Amino acid sequence: MALYSAAAAVLAGLERGEGGLKSLVYNSGFPHVRQLYALVSETLRYASVLEKLLDEAALLQAEKKLEPQLAKVLVYDLLFGKGLKCGGRWKALARRHRARLEAELARMKVRHKVSRNEDLLAPETAVSAAAAQVPRYVRVNTLKTCVDDVIDFFKRQGYAYLGKAASVEELKALSGKKFLLDLHLPELLVFPSQTDFHDNLLYTSGHIILQDKASCLPAFLLGPVAGSHVIDACAAPGNKTSQLAAILKNKGQIFAFDVDPKRVATMNTLLTRVGVTGCQLAQQDFLTVDPRDPKYSRVTHILLDPSCSGSGIVTRGPGEEVVSSAERLQALAGFQRRVLNHALSFPALQRLVYSTCSLHQEENEDVVQAVLQKWGSAFRLVTAFPSWPCRGLAAFSGAESCLRASPAETLTHGFFVAVLERCKEGAAAPSLLPAAAKESPQPGEGTEPGATPKKRKKKKQLVK
């Protein structure tokens, strides 16, 4: 059972944009990482087929307690994998539906006029090509070190530092052992896409975190000042939580929620490794948290990255980029509206970031528009990060204040971000960039490519 649960947790992390496949597998705590990686990879490769089988066999309707991610893993191994060699009660549950699933698979082959399972897979798509060009992003963990020291460390390992990027085209051109400082985010280094750091000392010691650039945007744009009380409403596996702690400099309080006990355990391990303090983890559905609880009376900032379709994630196999059914999108959007409304009800809240790793307007602009209409003049959208090239779809007036990310235009996973602030009578217009962006100097600015970056006062000694 542990294997299937771990695989389902990785799939959920991918859908929430919490990292790439390798990062989530290595951070899962599962002892047999190759076995887990293979299972998740193959499940992703067959994801579009599995979604159709689940819909046509009505498995999720018949088994209300079965999560979609776990259902995909079980059905993959039952029909395409090793035949459910483990799994305990989940194996028994899946086998109860075996005849119906096999019948639906047979009908699917007849409709497509194929005889092999592999022939149901779509050919390589543009999304797969986009995935190949998304660089490896490395966020420097400023709780343990600083950007300049990490740059020096990589240079000692034979990497060539090219300075701060001036354009997305420079990121596209990266190759070999060359790297850049990102053109937008001050603590993000950029390497060629296939660079693997899972065995690197900086990664294993928690000095760097492998996190896609789009996934770094929500905490960066929330920008709480040191000492703030912050909620990370859907936190696991913890990359964004650790980024919030770095922005806060471990001064203040973070309340991090996730309903799944295994994901909470994984998050606890990650946060400990990267040096996070002042964070209370809770295995709890955020919708059950009481906004009037005195514990949260000083919460001024909330990061909300709820479950979504995951349609913007590009690190997946052929056939995965299939538009979710209208029914599923409506169900997800309903949940997202509920959780966003709940987050806005915290009485001291001043600033909230809503984000998804979805491309669908139903989960993004439509959710924000509906919730803002409900709250009237209490909250407003902030035009955050005006230099960001991709803006929200023109679904409503103000959508241009939102951000979108895409493999083609920003070299990231597909993402959506909206920044909401409480309106104050007579208050000055909110800053267009968070405090985190203002306070962070840019290493290497003004230097020639390959030159040693300007030094600043070191925070903590880097692992040698």
UniProtKB/TrEMBL annotation:
<dbReference type="Pfam" id="PF21148">
    <property type="entry name" value="NSUN5_fdxn-like"/>
</dbReference>
<keyword id="KW-0007">Acetylation</keyword>
<feature type="binding site">
    <location>
        <begin position="234"/>
        <end position="240"/>
    </location>
    <ligand>
        <name>S-adenosyl-L-methionine</name>
    </ligand>
</feature>
<dbReference type="InterPro" id="IPR001678">
    <property type="entry name" value="MeTrfase_RsmB-F_NOP2_dom"/>
</dbReference>
<feature type="binding site">
    <location>
        <position position="258"/>
    </location>
    <ligand>
        <name>S-adenosyl-L-methionine</name>
    </ligand>
</feature>
<dbReference type="InterPro" id="IPR049560">
    <property type="entry name" value="MeTrfase_RsmB-F_NOP2_cat"/>
</dbReference>
<dbReference type="GO" id="GO:0003723">
    <property type="term" value="F:RNA binding"/>
</dbReference>
<dbReference type="GO" id="GO:0009383">
    <property type="term" value="F:rRNA (cytosine-C5-)-methyltransferase activity"/>
</dbReference>
<keyword id="KW-0949">S-adenosyl-L-methionine</keyword>
<keyword id="KW-0175">Coiled coil</keyword>
<comment type="similarity">
    <text>Belongs to the class I-like SAM-binding methyltransferase superfamily. RsmB/NOP family.</text>
</comment>
<keyword id="KW-0698">rRNA processing</keyword>
<keyword id="KW-0489">Methyltransferase</keyword>
<dbReference type="InterPro" id="IPR023267">
    <property type="entry name" value="RCMT"/>
</dbReference>
<feature type="active site" description="Nucleophile">
    <location>
        <position position="357"/>
    </location>
</feature>
<keyword id="KW-0694">RNA-binding</keyword>
<feature type="binding site">
    <location>
        <position position="305"/>
    </location>
    <ligand>
        <name>S-adenosyl-L-methionine</name>
    </ligand>
</feature>
<dbReference type="InterPro" id="IPR029063">
    <property type="entry name" value="SAM-dependent_MTases_sf"/>
</dbReference>
<keyword id="KW-0539">Nucleus</keyword>
<dbReference type="Pfam" id="PF21153">
    <property type="entry name" value="NSUN5_N"/>
</dbReference>
<keyword id="KW-0597">Phosphoprotein</keyword>
<keyword id="KW-0808">Transferase</keyword>
<feature type="binding site">
    <location>
        <position position="285"/>
    </location>
    <ligand>
        <name>S-adenosyl-L-methionine</name>
    </ligand>
</feature>
<feature type="region of interest" description="Disordered">
    <location>
        <begin position="434"/>
        <end position="464"/>
    </location>
</feature>
<feature type="domain" description="SAM-dependent MTase RsmB/NOP-type">
    <location>
        <begin position="126"/>
        <end position="423"/>
    </location>
</feature>
<dbReference type="InterPro" id="IPR049561">
    <property type="entry name" value="NSUN5_7_fdxn-like"/>
</dbReference>
<dbReference type="Pfam" id="PF01189">
    <property type="entry name" value="Methyltr_RsmB-F"/>
</dbReference>
<feature type="coiled-coil region">
    <location>
        <begin position="91"/>
        <end position="118"/>
    </location>
</feature>
<dbReference type="InterPro" id="IPR048889">
    <property type="entry name" value="NSUN5_RCM1_N"/>
</dbReference>
<protein>
    <recommendedName>
        <fullName>28S rRNA (cytosine-C(5))-methyltransferase</fullName>
    </recommendedName>
</protein>
<feature type="compositionally biased region" description="Basic residues">
    <location>
        <begin position="453"/>
        <end position="464"/>
    </location>
</feature>
<dbReference type="GO" id="GO:0070475">
    <property type="term" value="P:rRNA base methylation"/>
</dbReference>
<dbReference type="GO" id="GO:0005730">
    <property type="term" value="C:nucleolus"/>
</dbReference>
